[in-house]
């Protein structure tokens, strides 16, 4: 992995799902002001030894075997000015809906989690106060259903919604190097909620049509 | 002769209640064009909910668009029979019912039916009659009226997009569909404004018809067919000789298939069908193209907003320009120019790689798009006349239906095969430049033929040898037949150049 170093601090996110060997390289831009800088690779306060692959690039080699080795690794180039670039080694993120999911009583709610890499396991949690309670699919088959749309897409369906199902749900994807979570907010509304604006708009339509019809009758009578 | 004068149809008001009708058409046309585009916001959520693929959801949009354009002839037949007002009100009701039932759907197939067919059909019943009634209320100021009414589309889109987002964030997709159903009922309000305008009473028509039949049978070929079908009344005179063609005549009176022999109509049809192949694809792919060049989502959405705002201003402005005395007689050339300009924009788009370049492209595209849309129906009215426009618009929309549906998918295929958006822009640009050039050349030919026919007609009128009664009868018939007649009078005052339009109708 290479990052061209110029003026502004650079960041790059690297997603790792399973133990692997990885090379991180910082490369200096050709027309940069820095000439022959002093280079250090650091992780936090710890310095890592690097190798010079070419005249203007510096590399470190890492073996990531467990979650403790994930984190931020930076290369710092010191010369007349100091520039740095950081690699963030992380567990893959989960994509899902950010905004609250709005559903209705009696309807069904769907929460979909998607990741780049295939996780080892998927778990869903619901919150009970401040505690996370795992949802066991076999114990509530007519309430919760898990569906695997594909290896890296997982789906929770909650059937026969009631007001009590309001709240926060979590989707967890377990990878060999750790797990990541995503938060979903579920809001269950009653049918009355959209009905109010609906009735208001229908009333407006009826009033306008009647007014136009009456005006037409009135102006026709005026003509006669 | 007394009957002929008593039968003279009143000229279009060109104002007064007409402006109220324009407002109604603004709302109605706005919903018809903007609503399908506004629905796209809900698709991701519905796709997740039903667990379908993106293409299955996209079918909802396609079915809706196909029904809106494909049901054109049905719309025309209904307007010919019942007038604009009942059709639009029924259409509004249908849209409302469609969306309300869509709120309770439990499968994607039900969505196809409720949102796709029912709402699509309702929108078709909104679109055509709105355009038709403008032709009945305006003549002198018709381009302005058309431009203003067509401006409804971008205005509604700019209103619906944030509204849909707000509804979705607060009520989810089901609640939003329910409320949108109620909002669509406002089309009924627009329809209520479409006061029917008189086109001459039936007994006078039949009297004229008989007079005409005796005097002119055999002399007038195309002219005669134009007039008789324009009267839209069962013509007993024809059934005498052509007893076998009874059924055909009946269909003809509801939907004028003789238009296919009308030179101007055919030119318009071919040119427009070609143009629509490249018309909508760039809008569909503008935001994805912007994201492809590295622009973030909000800036990409902003490009579409610029397009809509420029479009909003361009449409009435084009209407005003098209109404001026220099452009109106040559409005077909202006239309061809607008199409070619549109094509040129697309051809130059691949050269714009930076964000500023894309902003410039969006502005010019908005301008060109607005110009073409504002004159889309005006030019058809100009070619076939307000009387036959009802049938013409139905036939044109069903023909355009195929190319409109094919345009974006072909563009999508080009993008997927080459991995580059520029081929899609080149295809759209070249198709539109071709359509523009075709229309320009063919309309030049058409104007010349019309001038020739006008000259022939004039020499016949001035010829003292021919039977005076016959020609007077014909002259009066020329003047008095429905909307065609009054069009000649106000325009004659405007000078030589305008006579070409008179012949066009």
UniProtKB/TrEMBL annotation, chain A:
The chain crosses the membrane at residues 198-218. InterPro entries: CD47_Vset, Ig-like_dom, Ig-like_dom_sf, Ig-like_fold, Ig_sub, Ig_sub2. Gene3D superfamilies: Immunoglobulins. One of its GO terms (cellular component) is membrane. It comes from the Eukaryota. Residues 9-86, 92-190 form the Ig-like domain. Keywords: Disulfide bond, Membrane, Repeat, Transmembrane, Transmembrane helix. SUPFAM superfamilies: Immunoglobulin. One of its GO terms (biological process) is cell-cell adhesion. This is EMB protein.
TrEMBL record, chain B:
It catalyses: 4-methyl-2-oxopentanoate(out) + H(+)(out) = 4-methyl-2-oxopentanoate(in) + H(+)(in); 3-methyl-2-oxobutanoate(out) + H(+)(out) = 3-methyl-2-oxobutanoate(in) + H(+)(in). InterPro entries: MCT, MFS, MFS_dom, MFS_trans_sf, Proton-linked_MCT. Keywords: Cell membrane, Membrane, Symport, Transmembrane, Transmembrane helix, Transport. Residues 455-482, 489-505 have a biased composition (Basic and acidic residues). Pfam families: MFS_1. Residues 18-447 form the Major facilitator superfamily (MFS) profile domain. GO terms for cellular component: basolateral plasma membrane. It is found in: Basolateral cell membrane. SUPFAM superfamilies: MFS general substrate transporter. The chain crosses the membrane at residues 16-36, 57-78, 90-123, 144-163, 175-194, 265-286, 298-314, 334-353, 359-377, 389-411, 423-445. One of its GO terms (molecular function) is monocarboxylic acid transmembrane transporter activity. Residues 455-505 are annotated as: Disordered. Its main location: membrane. It is a multi-pass membrane protein. It comes from the Eukaryota. Belongs to the major facilitator superfamily. Monocarboxylate porter (TC 2.A.1.13) family. NCBIfam families: 2A0113 (TIGR00892). This is MOT2 protein. It comes from Edolisoma coerulescens. The gene is Slc16a7_2.
